[in-house]
Amino acid sequence: MSGIEQDQLPIVAILTIEDAKEKFRGNRDNFLDILRAGKDLGFTVYIVTVRDLKLDAKRIAGYDYNEDKQAWQQDWFPPPRIVYNRIPLREDENLPAVRNKIEEILGHSSIRLYNPYFFNKWQLFEWLKKSRATRPFIPATRRLRTSVALAKMLNKHPYLFLKPETGKAGMGIMTLRVNHTKAMKFRLKTQDKRRSALFKCATISKLWTRIRKQAGTHDYIVQQGIPLATVNRRPFDLRVLVQKNSKGQWDITGVGARVAGSSSITTHVPRGGSIEDPEKLLSANFGAEQARRTMARTKNAAIIIARQIERGSGHMLGEMSMDLGVDTNGSIWFFEANAKPMKFDEPHIRRRSLERIFQYSTYLSRTGG
Question: Which fold has domain 12-114?
């Protein structure tokens, strides 16, 4: 850790929620990567559940991985200086006991919380619209409340995305196109875990009925569709991992590209998307020189957006991943940010991301943010 003595390193606890069968919830492979990276850097790091994290206790019941037995085991650990929130599901985080614990940590005099909450899509766009610096990256976005509002959006933008406010990994997303030359002029495309389906409607009222059926009880936003740059007629977007570094400043950890599957609405890999080299895709669309400039503009946009999201949230944030698009004219668009980034498949980004967690934890412990 570049000149940091081991006794100066903060104790880091990875926060998750208890589970009756599995002891604790969350992506165990991810947890194991974080534990190993921390230990390699000289940190004491362990998993702790909301129930077991007693903030003023002298010792904490947590979990470590026994490499010899290849099994998770419970042990006693010193109290943490840094709590890294990896509660896996929004529903878990919204439980009263969990919200109370997070608020308790946020108000603690000596413990620092790394990333308090999941983001809400609507709030993200509200925060980003408030700044002149980030407004140009935002597609036209409205809350989906009435068929009248939907009709108005369709008049301005004949291609729309419908997204759940609290969705993740592309779940529940729909696309909508209107073609006034057709009798069944509205084309609604939906996708679930395994497949996509196309619905054709002649009237806005029938379209609205279908949308409400698909949306169920979830709140949705409706957003201008952007004609993204493509490869082999498949659109792609850029996944940017933005993390704070050892100086507490937002920095680009890495940029990956995801190409949409043949019939998928989104570029998510579980839905048939594929991983590609972003510079190769940009060069194929715009030529090498413009591709370099576009990549530089993408990274700059991601930093500006991260700062504004943090400002809007009112909390100290440490990392986020973003989905950014490049349209056919080379303009950059913001689609989504995730407060708890999933693992990047690119090894160089993954390695660096794990190191950054502990670099920023050290900064937080020294300065309080």
Answer: Rossmann fold (3.40.50)
